[in-house]
Amino acid sequence: MIQFSDHKLKKVQEIMSRYPEGKQKSALLPVLHLAQEEFGGWLDVPVMDYVASLLSIEPIEVYEVASFYSMYNLKPVGKYLFEVCQTGPCMLNGSDDIIAYIKEKLNIRVGETSADGLFTLKTVECLGACGYAPMMQMGKNYREHLTKQKVDEIIAQCRANAN
Amino acid sequence: MGKKLLLAKADVPGIRHYEVYRREGGYRSVEKALRMQPADIVEEVKKSGLRGRGGAGFPTGMKWSFLAKPEGVARYLVCNADESEPGTFKDRYLMEFIPHLLIEGMIVSSFALGSNVSYIYIRGEYDWITDILEDAIAEARSNGWLGKNILGTGFDCEMYVQRGAGAYICGEETALLESLEGKRGNPRIKPPFPAVKGLWGCPTVVNNVETLAAVVPIINEGGEEYAKIGIGKSTGTKLISACGNINKPGIYEIDMTISVEEFIYSDEYCGGIPNGKRLKACIPGGSSVPILPANLLLTTAKGEKRLMNYESLSDGGFATGSMMGSGGFIVLDEDQCVVRHTYTLARFYRHESCGQCSPCREGTGWMEKILLSIEQGKGKMSDIDLLWDIQRKIEGNTICPLGDAAAWPVAAAIRHFRDEFEWHVNNPEKCLTENFGLRHYADPVHVPVTA
Question: Which residue of A has its CA nearest to B352?
Answer without folding.
Answer: A125
